[in-house]
Structures are given as structure tokens and as C-alpha cells.
Write a structure and sequence with these properties.
There is one protein chain. This protein has 361 residues and is α/β, with parallel strands linked by helices. The chain has 2 domains: 196 residues, von Willebrand factor, type A domain (Rossmann fold, 3-Layer(aba) Sandwich); 115 residues, Immunoglobulin-like (Sandwich). Helices cover 22% and strands 27% of the residues. It contains 7 helices and 18 strands. The strands form 4 sheets. Strands 3-2-1-4-5-6 form a 6-stranded mixed beta sheet, with helices on both faces. Helix 2 runs antiparallel to helix 3 and helix 4 packs parallel to helix 5. The chain is elongated, with a radius of gyration of 30 Å.
Length: 361
């Protein structure tokens, strides 16, 4: 018996233990999917094709509105599935249905493989957990912040909010929702998270939402649904059209402003741009800069001669234009596009001030 036990133990010792490390995704996209009754045009009897008002139990037998012309459920569902299909195989895809709460038993998470996308599509098409409720926008934002996004993640994340309504729950209140939205912006911006708030109906937009998101660089408000949830391209430019004092800024870094969608603010994610100077007799520049969460980027031009020689060579009666060229390298994120290919620096070469002293004899 003792020998058998030792032999059995030796098998356990020799048996290989295989554990697979959890691979972090290169990209995560989360869809907050509004599945309230209003997506069907209101509290309609979905079993019938005619717009028949229904009586909602538990609400004093009140007859709710029903407008089949506002039924956008199938259109939004197809657009959601199409956007999921467009995600890369390196992505992790999460769908969060909500009405007056997050339907946690129906939160689906899959990798962006063909099989993962097929499972998500099947779950979305078979979804039937529809109930006559209000719209709670606080709940999905809070759920995503606390369960789906993490500080200092190494990957780029996206949040897509798909709703045709405004927050109309009393607890938490609308004021609570907007406070959460502001805190969410503060959380998302330093953690490489970009949000897209898709307004699917006119009823879903209100002034307070615009005001809240006006200074929030991490969430774009898209109030004209075009039938798809593709990311609008964030177009950014690098501005350098500025005067540079030759003497005072000789061999000093020059700051170039990063302008995103016509506003001087940082891009979301990280981009690498090759910057080089056009042929000229005065300066060289050939480097790759990283543009990330800053509204400026620095470059340092290398002089081809000493300061004294430059002062003698460069004109003093007009500015010397140095053209900087930009080539965006392989985009790290799918939403940032450099739109300008060059900018100008105008060097000012002020003549040396001399003091003439005459002595009368």
C-alpha cells in the first residue's frame, strides 16, 4: 500500500501543470444599449403589427402612448451588429443592455474573433427582456466605470452610448446623472478611454447634456444618427506658424500646438508623427515625435552653423521661413487622423544693436 501511495504521489509531481495567462486586449469597446420601450415607438403591443396602446400593470392601469413610426429598435439592432462585425480580432467587445437598470444577466463579453462576433449577434437577435420602464442612464455609466474600465490600462478603450431618451428616473436623479457624467469624463481622459454618445431621437437631447459634455474631451456628442455607429474621425493638426527669435531661441525646443477638431486640446490615444525640415541652408530636423495627452509637442532644430554665422547669413530685413513636414506613422488608434502635412516657422534675425560713442576732443 505504501509503495502504491508513493507511486501515485510521484505521478502528481511529474504531471505538468499548464496555466494560460490572461491576455490583455489591444482594444476594448463597450456598447451601452438602450432597450427601453421607447425604442419600439412607445408602450406598444409588440405582438401585433397595428399601433395598439397597451395597459401597463402597476401604474394605475394608465394607457401609455404608442407610435409605431418611432419604432427604431430593429434599425438600431442591425447597426449595432454591423459595428460589432467591424471590430478587429484583437478587440474585446462588451454589450450592456439597460432600461431602468443594467440587465446584468444579459451583459455579453466576447473576443473580436469570428466565433465571438457570431455569439454576440445571436444574443442580440434573441434578446427579449423588454419591460415597460423608464430610462436610467446613470446605471450603465456607473456599471461601466466600476466594472469594465480600469485605471492605467495599457490598451485603448471605447464607450458607445446608444439611447433615444433622457434620464427620467427619480432615484438616482437627473442631477446625479450629470454629476456622474462629469466624474466619468475626469476618469476616462487620463486612462485612454474615448466615448461616443449617440443620440438616436430628438427626444434624447437636452441643453444640460450639451453643456455638460462641452468641455469633456473624452466623450463626443453625436446628435445626428447616420445609420451606423462607426467612430467619427478625430482630425488633428499641428500648428507651428509662429515667429522664432533666432538669438533668443537658438537651439531651444520649439513648441507646436496640437489642435483636435479645431480646438486646441490633446488627442485621445497615442500617435507617432515623423517631422522633418524641407531643404534649407540653415537648419536640419529629422525626428519622430509622440503625440499623446498633451496639447503641445516639442521639436528641436539642429543648426548647420554657429549662431554668429547664422546671424551673418540669414536676412535681417525679412523673416526666414523654415517648412516643417509631417508624416503620420501607423495609427495606434482608429480615430485620429493628421490632416495637415506641413507648417511654417518664421525666423526673425534682428541685427545686433550697437552703441556708438563719440568723444569730442
Amino acid at each position: 500500500m505504501k509503495h502504491k501511495l508513493l507511486a501515485l504521489l510521484s505521478l502528481f509531481v511529474l504531471m505538468p501543470i499548464c496555466t494560460k495567462a490572461q491576455e490583455a486586449p489591444q482594444h476594448r469597446v463597450v456598447y451601452l444599449w438602450d432597450v427601453t420601450y421607447s425604442m419600439f415607438g412607445g408602450y406598444c403591443d409588440m405582438k401585433n403589427s397595428t399601433p395598439t396602446p397597451v395597459i401597463v400593470a402597476g401604474e394605475s392601469m394608465q394607457i401609455k402612448y404608442c407610435d409605431k413610426k418611432k419604432n427604431i429598435y430593429n434599425k438600431i439592432m442591425e447597426a449595432l451588429i454591423k459595428d460589432i462585425q467591424s471590430q478587429s480580432v484583437e478587440s474585446e467587445i462588451i454589450v450592456v443592455p439597460f432600461n431602468d437598470k443594467v440587465l446584468t444577466n444579459c451583459v455579453w463579453k466576447q473576443k473580436g474573433t469570428a466565433m465571438g462576433k457570431e455569439i454576440l449577434e445571436k444574443n442580440i437577435r434573441q434578446f427579449k427582456d423588454i419591460a415597460p420602464t423608464g430610462t436610467n442612464l446613470y446605471a450603465p455609466f456607473d456599471y461601466a466605470k466600476n466594472n469594465l474600465f480600469f485605471p492605467k490600462a495599457k490598451y485603448y478603450s471605447e464607450l458607445k452610448i446608444l439611447t433615444d431618451g433622457v434620464h427620467n428616473e427619480k432615484n438616482p436623479s437627473k442631477a446625479d446623472f450629470y454629476r456622474l457624467l462629469l466624474s466619468w469624463c475626469s476618469f476616462a481622459e487620463p486612462n485612454n478611454i474615448k466615448g461616443y454618445y449617440f443620440i438616436l431621437a430628438e427626444d434624447a437631447i437636452e441643453d444640460e447634456l450639451r453643456i455638460t459634455l462641452h468641455d469633456c474631451t473624452c466623450i463626443d456628442l453625436i446628435d445626428h444618427f447616420q445609420g451606423h455607429f462607426e467612430n467619427p474621425v478625430n482630425q488633428f493638426t499641428i500648428k507651428g506658424d509662429q515667429l522664432v527669435n533666432l538669438k533668443d531661441q537658438f537651439q531651444q525646443p520649439i513648441k507646436l500646438s496640437v489642435v483636435l477638431n479645431d480646438v486646441e486640446r490633446p488627442i485621445q490615444g497615442t500617435e507617432k508623427v515623423h517631422v522633418y525640415a524641407s531643404s534649407n541652408p540653415y537648419f536640419d530636423l529629422n525626428e519622430t515625435v509622440t503625440i499623446d495627452g498633451k496639447a503641445t509637442v516639442e521639436v528641436t532644430l539642429k543648426p548647420k552653423m554657429s549662431l554668429a554665422e547664422l546671424q551673418r547669413s540669414m536676412p535681417t530685413d525679412e523673416n526666414t521661413v523654415i517648412v516643417l513636414n509631417f508624416d503620420q506613422e501607423k495609427k495606434e488608434t482608429p480615430v485620429n487622423e493628421l490632416v495637415n502635412k506641413s507648417c511654417e516657422l518664421r525666423y526673425v534675425n534682428k541685427p545686433q544693436k550697437t552703441l556708438t560713442i563719440s568723444i569730442k576732443q
